[in-house]
């Protein structure tokens, strides 16, 4: 949400892509629709891609989402190659729309240690994009924009306020509780709550259990 709002502020026309990968937290698809409308995007594609057929993650398989706190290890909520898959799809869409800038909201500070959020991955994909496409081959390469890469969650919360977008529109929780509540205990909920607290901004999130 914040990444897209920054793109809009910089004067970009936004073509938004949301992937319905049969994730446990499908409520984030509803959130994406609301955000796309709020940001007045020119096009919003919701693309079905059932990664539960692969499994291997608590977000796409019958595996419990960890609730014990953020650890130093890559958690079971890691979806195999998810950002690589998502960026590949986005690259195809960008080339089809004659766009050259791709925005993604990855973060390498307050996160769960996923390897596909690291700057090295983004830099590598940008090089790959130029090798893998007609546009790149003809000298019109792509830029992967990561405006949140080195922000803390507190910084991101402050950016949402500066950009005048309601953080309540966004969804973070990996394991939604009954009544469309954030569970409050998964990594994503804990990092979300921590960000609002450190930013000194009231957290509008409805939690089943306060982190």
UniProtKB/TrEMBL annotation:
Its cofactor is Zn(2+). Belongs to the QueC family. Binds 1 zinc ion per subunit. This is 7-cyano-7-deazaguanine synthase. Keywords: ATP-binding, Ligase, Metal-binding, Nucleotide-binding, Queuosine biosynthesis, Zinc. It catalyses: 7-carboxy-7-carbaguanine + NH4(+) + 2 ATP = 7-cyano-7-carbaguanine + 2 AMP + 2 diphosphate + 2 H(+). CDD domains: QueC-like. The keyword Nucleotide-binding applies. InterPro entries: QueC, Rossmann-like_a/b/a_fold. The keyword Iron-sulfur does not apply. It is an enzyme of class 6 (ligase). Its EC number is 6.3.4.20. Zn(2+) binds at residues 173, 183, 186, 189. HAMAP family: QueC. Pathway: Purine metabolism; 7-cyano-7-deazaguanine biosynthesis. Catalyzes the ATP-dependent conversion of 7-carboxy-7-deazaguanine (CDG) to 7-cyano-7-deazaguanine (preQ(0)). PANTHER family: 7-CYANO-7-DEAZAGUANINE SYNTHASE. Gene3D superfamilies: HUPs.
């Amino acid at each position: 949400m914040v990444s897209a709002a920054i793109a809009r502020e910089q004067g970009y026309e936004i073509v938004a892509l949301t992937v319905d990968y049969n994730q446990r937290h499908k409520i984030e698809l509803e959130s994406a629709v609301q955000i796309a409308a709020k940001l007045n995007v020119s096009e919003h594609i919701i693309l079905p891609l059932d990664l539960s057929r692969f499994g291997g993650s608590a977000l796409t398989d019958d595996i419990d989402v960890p609730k014990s706190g953020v650890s130093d290890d890559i958690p079971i909520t890691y979806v195999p190659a998810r950002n690589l898959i998502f960026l590949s799809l986005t690259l195809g869409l960008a080339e089809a729309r004659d766009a050259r800038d791709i925005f993604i909201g990855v973060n390498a500070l307050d996160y769960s240690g996923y390897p596909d959020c690291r700057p090295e991955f983004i830099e590598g994909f940008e090089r790959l994009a130029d090798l893998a496409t007609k546009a790149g081959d003809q000298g019109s390469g792509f830029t992967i924009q990561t405006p949140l890469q080195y922000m803390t969650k507190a910084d991101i919360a402050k950016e949402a306020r500066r950009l005048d977008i309601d953080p309540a529109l966004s969804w973070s929780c990996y394991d939604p509780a009954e009544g469309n509540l954030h569970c409050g205990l998964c990594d994503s909920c804990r990092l979300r709550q921590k960000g609002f607290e450190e930013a000194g901004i009231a957290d509008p999130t409805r939690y089943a259990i306060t982190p």
